[in-house]
Specification:
heterodimer, A: alpha/beta, Rossmann fold, 14 helices, 7 strands, globular, B: alpha/beta, seven-stranded mixed beta sheet, five-stranded mixed beta sheet, 36% helix, oxidoreductase (chain B), Transketolase-like_Pyr-bd (chain B), thiamine pyrophosphate (chain B), magnesium ion binding (chain B)
Chain lengths: 376, 340
């Protein structure tokens, strides 16, 4: 059987149709119970997450344009994939992001200004994962984090922290990467190790169509979801612009992983509406018509239509917009207050234990820097 | 009987001395480290029931089981990358890279991830990962099995790089490396795996990063690490027959380098030769030669000379003895320094 990467005949889990109607397709059947347990508050929360990060994303891009950030990595268009999967994880789970999952960090309790500190170039890391919902640091070497996630999941097994039969306690790992990173050796080695050790882990691949300027067809001639089977890992493709599909399928596979049934692979079909980063210019390599096509499938508009159909009052959406604007204004204010570290941070934390050569170099550096102060 | 019970009956810590080959001294050191700390686990290719291609992990799988001795899939980047994840979880992985020339698939995970993870986390985590690398020539093997890639790692901030030359050092240094909270590249001189030496299980070990004078002399200082130390001692014997007194320094640590004994020796002899199996261009030996020149300029009677592998790929084994620095090539350099 042949299928191109974007062949829509490949089963793709969808519960919310692009027009906002609730219409689970055949592939979605087994996941319906996960959606049925969602309360109206849960759905409002999904919407609030998505609308807030959309507004934040725009503010961050503006900050970059105004010289406040070295770079920004937009998430516009991928909110449903990220919010659904992010909300599916339990508090005890561990999240290994790539570098575009800002809203997953928010969901885990991270102050997004900490992300801006990284993109402003005042820190390499930005936050303490254990104090921020086990949301690990961003990883800028593509797919490097997939192996860290798998090793961490092996550690959960060795610790007996998973598959005890208590879903309130059992821990699992979610790792995010993308269609570009799927070509990296590390992504494939991670799948080999995960299958071999049957790690409690979900690989969440956001196929946003583009690796900077190169279309996904260059990465794979077959649907990426098929790779799961090749590694002996159960896999599902989902409509990545359907927050309910993202939530339900991730929740299911995390439950399975926590129960000791090994890893899973999810390919979320979505689209990077914005540029790869603020240094990119998508008009040089992609068609406006493709973009328009995807904008029509906007994940936030889709959820809003659905919620309106369920009778959620219009004032709710106005309130969310207002909150998001306040949030963005607060982020902007605090982003402008970010200050750089002292220069001697250069030498901090390179080693855990004494290192005479570096200590000597640091002493020289400090004396050299101090010589300017004396001159003044 | 459970695994734990078997272990409880095993002698917990050897005492006295024992005559062991260097490879088996490492085995004993690994075993001791695993007994001392149950977060220590071994990862690598064929290290389980086989005991590794050099049998350095022999018996450890039987004693400690599947979750302490992991026969991993055959993927070096995967091994190092998952070890990083395990270290994040509180484990102390000890990786065996099967041969020096096979470390490069893991180069990215070692240099862009392992080496920087602590700095990236602003000190919030440590990476107590040891990467054991059987390295160097003299075993007559095929391509990628005889190389000396130490410089790539010594160049990388965040890593520590050590190399034992004797069974006693091997036994102690592997345990010190495992106890270190920093990542350590542990280069094992594979041509020295089999010759035996005394291991003293009771003696206070030399610090991991200390260099050491292993033979005193007055005319020329020769400096090296790993298997090269044996060649240097051989050269010193030959020179003594001709009336030249050579002092030999075993570096033991390539990052950081302990320059104290090196400079003390050079201040006495005024002449230094640095020897290594690795190609000389941009090598550890180059760095040491430059530092001696910087710090001991007025004490030197002659330029610091280097004796290295040639700046070529490691050649076919049939001609490796022409490539690898021999005692004679070391003495040729010694003679040149004495001619100044």
């Amino acid at each position: 059987m042949a299928a191109s990467e974007n062949d829509l005949s490949v089963p793709t889990v969808q519960l919310l149709a692009p027009d906002g109607s609730y219409a689970p397709n055949a592939a979605a059947e087994q996941f319906v119970p996960y959606v049925e347990r969602l309360t109206e508050d849960d759905l409002r929360r999904f919407y609030r997450d998505m609308a807030t990060v959309r507004r934040f994303d725009r503010e961050a891009a503006n900050l970059q344009r105004q010289g406040q950030l070295a770079l920004w990595v937009p998430s516009h268009g991928q909110e449903a994939a990220q919010v659904g999967s992010g909300r599916a994880a339990r508090p005890q789970d561990h999240i290994f992001p790539s570098y575009r999952e800002h809203v997953v960090g928010m969901i885990r309790g991270l102050d997004v200004v900490d992300i801006l500190r990284v993109l402003k170039g005042v820190t390499m890391g930005g936050w303490v994962p254990e104090e921020n919902g086990n949301f690990r640091l961003y990883s800028f070497v593509l797919a490097s984090q997939t192996l860290h996630a798998t090793g961490y999941a092996m550690g959960l097994q060795f610790d007996g922290a998973t598959a005890t039969g208590d879903p309130e306690r059992d821990e699992a790992v979610v790792v995010y990467y993308g269609d570009g990173a799927s070509s990296q050796g590390d992504a494939n080695e991670a799948l080999v190790f995960a299958a071999s050790y049957q790690t409690p882990q979900v690989f969440f691949l956001q196929n946003n169509g583009w690796a900077i300027s190169v279309p996904v067809e260059r990465q794979s001639r077959t649907p990426l979801v098929w790779r799961g089977a090749g590694f002996g890992i159960r896999a599902d493709r989902i409509d990545g612009n359907d927050v309910l599909a993202s939530y339900a399928v991730t929740a299911h596979h995390l439950d399975e992983a926590r129960a000791g049934h090994g890893p899973a692979f999810i390919e979320a079909m979505t689209y990077r509406v914005g540029a790869h980063t603020t240094a990119d210019d998508p008009t040089k390599y992609r068609l406006d018509t493709d973009l328009e096509d995807w904008v029509r499938r906007d994940p936030i508009a889709r959820l809003r239509t659905y919620l309106e159909g369920r009778g959620i009052e219009g004032s709710f959406f106005d309130e969310v917009d207002e909150e998001a604007a306040d949030f963005a204004a607060d982020v902007r204010r605090r982003a402008l207050e970010i200050v750089g570290p002292d220069p001697d941070v250069i030498f901090d934390n390179v080693y855990a234990e004494a290192h005479p050569a570096l200590a000597e170099e640091r002493a020289w550096f400090e004396a050299y820097e101090a010589s300017f102060e004396e001159a003044e | 009987m459970t695994d734990t019970a078997i272990r409880a009956e095993a002698p917990s810590r050897p005492s006295g001395t024992s005559i062991l080959p260097l490879g088996k001294a490492i085995t004993a050191g690994l075993r001791q480290a695993m007994l001392d700390d149950d977060k220590v686990l071994l990862m690598g290719e064929d290290i389980g029931p086989l005991g590794g291609v050099f049998r350095v992990t022999e018996g450890l799988h039987a004693e400690f089981g599947d979750q302490r001795v992991l026969d991993t899939p055959l993927a070096e980047s995967g091994i190092v990358g998952t070890a990083i994840g395990l270290a994040m979880r509180g484990y102390r992985p000890v990786i065996e890279i099967q041969f020096d020339g096979f470390i490069f698939p893991a180069f990215d995970q070692i240099t862009t991830q392992l080496a920087r993870m602590r700095a990236r986390h602003e000190g919030g985590i440590s990476m107590p990962v040891v990467i054991r690398v059987p390295y160097g020539g003299h075993i007559g093997s095929i391509e990628h099995h005889q190389e000396s890639p130490e410089a790539y790692f010594a160049h990388t901030p965040g890593l520590r790089v050590v190399s034992p030359a004797t069974p006693n050092d091997a036994y102690w240094m592997i345990q010190q490396a495992i106890r270190s909270d920093d990542p350590v590249l542990f280069f094992e001189p594979k041509s020295r795996y089999w010759p035996k030496g005394t291991v003293d299980f009771d003696a206070e070990p030399t610090p991991l990063h200390a260099s050491r004078v292993v033979r005193t002399g007055t005319d020329v200082t020769v400096i090296g690490h790993g298997a090269m130390v044996t060649t240097l001692l051989e050269a010193a014997d030959l020179a003594a027959d001709e009336g030249t007194s050579i002092e030999v320094v075993d570096l033991r640590s390539l990052s950081p380098v302990d320059y104290g004994p090196v400079l003390a020796s050079v201040s006495k002899t005024g002449r230094a030769v640095v020897a290594q199996e690795a190609s000389g261009f941009v090598s550890v030996g180059s760095e040491i030669a430059a530092t001696i020149a910087e710090r001991a300029f007025y004490l030197l009677q002659a330029p610091v000379l280097r004796v290295s592998g040639y700046d070529t790929p490691f050649p076919p084994a049939a001609v490796e003895t022409h490539f690898l620095p021999s005692a004679d090539r070391v003495l040729e350099a010694v003679d040149r320094t004495l001619a100044y």
